[in-house]
Request: fold
Amino acid sequence: MGLVAIMKMRSILAIAILGTATAAVLFLGSEAQEVKKEYHTERISGSAGDVLEDDPVGRLKVYVYDLPAKYNTELVDKDPRCLTHMFAAEIFVHRSLLTSAVRTLDPDEADWFFTPVYTTCDLTPSGHPMPFDSPRMMRAAIRHVAARWPYWNRTEGADHFFVTPHDFGACFHFKEDQAVSRGILHVLRRATLVQTFGQSRHPCMQPAGRSITMPPYAPPQRMESRLLPPATPRSVFAYFRGLFYDAGNDPEGWRYARGARAEVWENFKSSPVFDISAERPGTYYEDMQRAVFCLCPLGWAPWSPRLVEAVVFGCVPVVVADGIVLPFHDAIPWAEAAVFVAEEDVPRLDTILTSIPPEEVVRRQRMLASPAVKRALLFHQPSQPGDAFHQILNGLARKLPHREGVFLRPGETVLNWTTGPPRDLKPW
Reply:
């Protein structure tokens, strides 16, 4: 990096520190409480226009199937670790629905039906979800609701939604090539999928308008407890902690993250302005609050909680994931809050970031300081107006009324949902 670039970087840091100091970041403080009272009319100024936060209450009714505990709560009791991993949204969406004003106990008046199946709660000893049983588990749950209620059979699931938060959603495999080979579970192809996996034109992603993309789970209370004072100087230019190589699954070293993380390491491991390491320290949350830019490169899938953490901690996300589909565009003006870098441009990352005008850095920081923007990415318990659960409900409400052809004529069958690979037909 040349002298001019270094001087410009220092200018960015100086102004960024000022911007952080003047835009107080309150996670759940007095400003957040004020927003909560006025959520019906709160507006967020952004590239998408002057966006009105919607209230889904009164615009949709959701019936929650009462499944045997083996499909959900029994799994949590067996291994509570699944409450804290990045796929835990399936648990918290279920819990929030049970107490939500949109829930109806009368299925005949429901707009949507929810089948609470915790497909990522079967963890290995190291804590990684392995969705090998997920297809059988999901198929068995659908057989259960189809046998006891008439609603699945009348639409083949077209007015049902499912939370499928694993890396490749309802393809139910942790390796992309095998997930693509399997495809979205046949029985779910008429349903709406709420999934963290967001990548355009991918076999594991429903076509635009079908699925709802949500953020991965990041624990709000844990982050709240680690907040630093708003005026804390941002003395680190670019920060990243995470794997650069996945030797276990990618021994050659360049399939993981399509080589983007390896490029970050090879190009900037010795850079004086990049603070990057594979080691995650105990001060990880605090370190993000001392950084101007937080790198958010793809891994095996485009998503990780890192993007959520960066937004919550006011660190400008640098998204490196070609074709990523981000959640809740009507609530979060992503183009104004984050920086997007093409995977092929990673070797130029230092030049790209130091070329951003200081006033642009400050503007992004002030956008990230909005409590409404932060809240839209978090699954609070209990749910709060405008949070991630609220945004999912808005997405469901906007898909109403159901499109023509959702409800089947008597005797008409669009899918034979009992078909599938023999291993998927075994009892679960």
